Amino acid sequence: MSIFSLVTGRPGPSGFGSATTAEQVTEGIDASDVTAIVTGGGSGIGFETARVLALRRAHVIIAARNVDAANEVKHLILNDDGDARVDVLELDLCSMKSIRAFVDNFIALDLPLNVLINNAGIMFCPYQLSEDGFEVQFATNYLGHFLLTNLLLDKMKATARVSGIEGRIVNLSSIAHLHTYKEGIRFDDINDQLSYSDKKAYGQSKLANILHANELSRRLQGNQNLCKKSNST
Ligand SMILES: NC(=O)c1ccc[n+]([C@@H]2O[C@H](COP(=O)([O-])OP(=O)(O)OC[C@H]3O[C@@H](n4cnc5c(N)ncnc54)[C@H](OP(=O)(O)O)[C@@H]3O)[C@@H](O)[C@H]2O)c1
Question: Is residue 16 part of a domain?
Fold first, then answer.
């Protein structure tokens, strides 16, 4: 999507644009056969995504660092529709230990998984390292979602095989992916503090989200148990 279309909301070839609401995009869809995980579903874009998926009858798992806030969101959704299926599981994408625990807890629920929406993100943070020792925006926005996706991939393939419903993995990116370091991704200097730029580090993590989606798509295309990719800006 061009900046012009982004700002004006002019619809693209799909008929949708930046001014289209989630309710408009999903109008008429019955998602009652769908189970979806939305990371960062306790606020912002993730909340709206979770709300509208639940409105369309999907079973929504809100993966949240702030479980109290996510539970409030769950109650808001249930207040509107007592039949909505919404659960909250704790997930801190900045911690590989927490990601592994989240996946263990999700697998223990023995639910299918059709849709994974890698939405959570942090933006323009001061330099900081995650508990695993990675620059925190790269760790949260990209590495965390990369690990989460890898750990859930077998479950998604198994669900697609049994249900016959093609899976979907959505990585939330940003127009900021165009404004990264001159090397694109600084594979050799990911933690360099001296040249750290909060904005370029954010752009770098969002570029990584796109490359991740592209590579997933390349690897999964033609796979009988396909899980398609898509990017969002
Ligand atoms: N808003 C925009 O204009 C815009 C534009 C382009 C792209 N995006 C992308 O869209 C996505 C959502 O943005 P937003 O505007 O909705 O942001 P937001 O309102 O700040 O919400 C971000 C969500 O991510 C969660 N989160 C942050 N760090 C986390 C962690 N370590 N583990 C788990 N969850 C974590 C937050 O949870 P807590 O409450 O615990 O912090 C929050 O629920 C992001 O990926 C962003 O890069 C947004």
Answer: no
